């Protein structure tokens, strides 16, 4: 499986209200930041529960558990910590180009032109996009970049 997945359950006992609350908070935050994900309901198939626990490396792991591709991101507590520390993009193992899939970002490559003498600013190398206006840009969420 590829992409961001949130393992959850639609069936919880009366003592597991905490799980429902945590699942709701994770999906609310991801939806609010317009981060695309797949919700995987482990109550539908024991194999999915076993898959979640194997990825988490914990035979007793409970939802919600978050995975990107085959990389384990973490559980609810780690997710909340990443949100509070403004490191959610790194926690979710999202590349900068995934931050706003509606508008692919230009990333310099080793083959990008070098600045000419006297023009050493970072914006001298940006590509020109014809007919680009602020109104034509999709509503992107802010990029979460590490502090300098």
TrEMBL record:
CDD domains: GRX_SH3BGR. Its main location: membrane. Coiled coil: none annotated. Residues 107-127 are annotated as: Disordered. It is found in: Cell projection, Ruffle membrane; Cytoplasm, Cytosol; Nucleus. It comes from the Eukaryota. One of its GO terms (cellular component) is nucleus. Keywords: Acetylation, Cell membrane, Cell projection, Cytoplasm, Glycoprotein, Membrane, Nucleus. Pfam families: SH3BGR. Homodimer. Interacts with MYO1C (via its IQ motifs); the interaction is dependent on calcium and takes place at membrane ruffles. Belongs to the SH3BGR family. This is SH3 domain-binding glutamic acid-rich-like protein 3. The gene is SH3BGRL3.
